[in-house]
TrEMBL record:
It comes from Cyclopterus lumpus (Lumpsucker). It is a peripheral membrane protein. GO terms for cellular component: cytosol; early endosome membrane; endoplasmic reticulum membrane; Golgi membrane; lysosomal membrane; plasma membrane; trans-Golgi network. Keywords: ATP-binding, Cell membrane, Cytoplasm, Endoplasmic reticulum, Endosome, Golgi apparatus, Kinase, Lipid metabolism, Membrane, Nucleotide-binding, Transferase. It catalyses: a 1,2-diacyl-sn-glycero-3-phospho-(1D-myo-inositol) + ATP = a 1,2-diacyl-sn-glycero-3-phospho-(1D-myo-inositol 4-phosphate) + ADP + H(+). GO terms for molecular function: 1-phosphatidylinositol 4-kinase activity; ATP binding. The keyword Transferase applies. This is Phosphatidylinositol 4-kinase type 2. Belongs to the PI3/PI4-kinase family. Type II PI4K subfamily. Its EC number is 2.7.1.67.
């Protein structure tokens, strides 16, 4: 519904009814990107919008199965990665035809049966939220934003409307000025800050295998790796391979200055190794994988996964994860984020949180028992639901509020 109102700049203008979703009309993206609690992020988004207005458009990323884009600032420097909801792997405007063909030819088995479809953008932002709440610092800051660009994949109707408005503005200025926005409608999606100096984990892991790290740097890598494990396990990431997490390794000094390098690594307290957990769009399942594939954590086969969780990691997250009030606050924060989606279903969201609570319960016990990441992923899968009668599997009551259920069903191709 569009409401008519008067404003000083013109005799008549169109305003958006509050009940409408921004993508239902051609409103400007700048009207919705407000981050009063994060002025630094707000400034980055503003620079991205200015760049698009000046003709410096986002560039589509060739890798992956969805439409995702490198977003630039007015000088052409990449500052973020934007993943529109409508261009997700099975989204109706995905520009990469392979997934559409998959859905068309195999409608009974497309996608991941444990995930809600077309919520990847929320999963990306929610992973950043969990990372921040736990103080992990491995997920580049990610939030939900609105952006519009000629380089995004739009329907023929949207492009025709945009051309029609531009034509009206050129031919009949008095009519054209009443349009709230002349260009293409903004797209809803996740915006993740771009990280520089990182390479795919597989590259550095091979290098580290051939050229072992100094002991103190190895400990830094292990600490960062454990933070990645904590994140992935809590959000039950179903898509973590060595190609979608990154490592940054800054070796001090020059190649020939080995003595200087050794002195620096002994004295310096600054971190030389840093991990970035990107591509978190396939997390927060509403059930454990129990159909065809297990969607394992591929880091479980790395040598770092055989080392028991460090005291540093336990001190960082154990007190928070073992606090039911903290976990409940985390669920409430995620609820505020997920409920903004047009297809939000409270029942399905509660199932997602039941899986996450089970993951938290297992992780808490593993940290207390001094287990390693590989031992963690071998623990029985648990779902912690709000107490109710019935249920499947072995049930244990946790106080009056929640019920712990051991998830017994396994996928056909079992793995960690």
């Amino acid at each position: 519904t569009l409401l008519l109102s008067f404003c000083p700049s013109s005799s008549l203008c169109l305003t958006l009814h509050p009940s409408l979703h921004p993508t239902d009309c051609s409103a400007g993206s700048g009207d919705f990107n407000h981050f009063p609690d994060d002025p630094e992020f707000a400034d980055i988004i503003q620079r991205a919008e200015q760049a698009i207005e000046n003709g410096v458009f986002p560039e589509r990323i060739s890798q992956g199965s969805s439409g995702s884009y490198f977003v630039k600032d007015p000088k052409g420097k990449v500052i973020g990665v934007f993943k529109p909801k409508s261009e997700e792997p099975y989204g109706h405007l995905n520009p990469k035809w392979t997934k559409y063909f998959h859905k068309l030819c195999c409608p009974c088995c497309f996608g991941r049966g444990c995930l809600l479809p077309n919520q990847g953008y929320l999963s990306e932002a929610a992973a950043s939220l969990v990372d921040t709440k736990l103080g992990l610092g491995v997920v580049p800051k990610t939030k939900v934003v609105y952006l519009a660009s000629d380089t995004f994949h739009y329907s023929a109707i949207d492009r025709a409307k945009s051309k029609g408005k531009k034509y009206a503005l050129e031919k009949v200025p008095k009519v054209g000025r009443h349009f709230h926005r002349v260009g293409l409608p903004p797209k809803l999606g996740s915006f993740q800050l771009f990280v520089e100096g990182y390479r795919e984990a597989d590259f550095w892991l091979r290098r580290f295998e051939a050229e072992p790290l100094p002991e103190n740097i190895r400990k830094q890598l292990q600490s960062q790796f454990e933070r990645l494990v904590v994140l992935d396990y809590v959000i039950r990431n179903t898509d973590r391979g060595n190609d979608n997490w990154l490592i940054k390794y800054e070796k001090p000094g020059g190649e020939g200055d080995r003595q200087k390098d050794a002195e620096w690594t002994e004295k310096s307290s600054a971190s030389c190794v840093k991990i970035a957990a990107i591509d978190n769009g396939l997390a927060f399942p509403f059930k454990h994988p129990d159909e065809w594939r297990a969607y394992p954590f591929h880091w479980a086969w790395l040598p770092q996964a055989k080392v028991a969780f460090s005291l540093e990691t336990r001190d960082l997250v154990l007190s928070r994860l073992s606090d039911m009030n903290f976990v409940q606050d985390l669920c409430e924060d995620l609820y505020e984020m997920f409920k903004t989606d047009k297809g939000f279903d409270k029942t399905m969201f509660e199932r997602q949180m039941s899986v996450m609570r089970g993951q938290v319960l297992n992780l808490t016990q593993a940290l207390k028992d001094g287990k390693s990441p590989i031992q963690l992923v071998q623990m029985p899968r648990v779902v912690v639901e709000r107490s109710r009668s019935g249920g499947h599997g072995r049930v244990v009551t946790l106080g009056n509020a929640f019920t712990q259920t051991f998830h017994c069903k396994r996928p056909f191709f079992t793995s960690w």
